Amino acid sequence: MGIFVYNFHTKQFVMRAETLAIHASNINTASTGDVITPISLSTTFLRGEDGGYPGGFSYSRANSPNRAALESVLTALEYGQDACAFSSGNTAGMSVFQALPPGSHIIAPDDMYWGLKKQLETIFASSLQVDFIDQTDLGNIEAHIKDNTRLIWIETPSNPLLKLTDIAAIAAIAKHHGALLVCDNTFASPVLQNPLNLGADMVLHSITKYIGGHSDVLGGALITADKDSEFWNAIRNIQQTGGAVATPFDCFLTIRSIKTLSYRIKGHCYNAGQLTHYLSHHPKVEAVLYPGLSSHPQHALARKQMKDFGGMFAFLLKDGEATARSVVNKTKLFIQATSLGGVESLIEHRASVEGPDTKTPAHLVRISVGLEHIDDLIEDLEQALQ
Ligand code: PLP
What we know:
single chain, alpha/beta, Aspartate Aminotransferase, domain 2, Aspartate Aminotransferase, domain 1, seven-stranded mixed sheet, 12 strands, about 35% helix, disordered N terminus, binds pyridoxal-5'-phosphate
């Protein structure tokens, strides 16, 4: 673990994401000389005569070789000090809410990923106070800070409206008021955006999305800028004692996926750029929401804090909800399903996935662009829009 350590202050970090993604998870065992970390299914590990654990592992809920390898590469890719891998993005997020003292106040985005918003509104309704607000306005964040504000939660780009929040500016506000800043970095992936380098305290990923990349692993992770903090110790305790951990096989699959993450992201960005350009000139489309378009209200911020603009976008249909629902039923290549970040393109009528309380416009279609040939994708949308 911790093979490559980035020092944020001296800016010494020799390897780039493509190299780290391949090498930072390889734990070699002297006995067999495996080049790739093999799947270790043992739940329990040998104790030495002195009562210690010579292999570094005791019981697989507490830690395991595959989880250690995954946490190592995630730490490196987000330029952090440590990582915790969980059984899902939602259990990763829940551990943050569980680690807060009861009565804490949280500032969260008004279009926060609905599954995490639901946790705050249901599971934590009696123990935490939350304001869901528009975070594109920094003054609005300042106005909502209270004496008991312990956490500012941001998600950028957001799901499904692709709104951006200024990570560095909000990090300064959080620091000034003694609150933690946690950034859900799922849409960008660690290849396109590194919130810890912009001052955030912690990053969340739903591994299920771009990091897993093939729609076959459910997982989540938190990465911290400070492994010695009291808050991080509380998170590690929740992971190990609560036990919502990533299994060895899921860790193995995730590590395998990470090795191609940078190259997959290049393809997602290229295809999204071409498709959003095509749609923004289509007569049936009212607007396209994508941070890579100069029409996006925060395009300049996207250029500042992201390396590229990602593979997620949404578009609004001029003819309203009925047309939006018909388009998602008519595509042949785009699969009508929820989730995102896989190699296959997905399309969905988002409001009906989120349910009756949603703020998502009824004429919005969300797309997760895959890695198919761009001409096939454009042809498919062309026939669905006719
Ligand atoms: N954060 C974002 C932005 C998401 O889109 C999702 C899932 O869609 C999650 C968190 C939760 O992740 P999981 O589904 O792995 O629990």
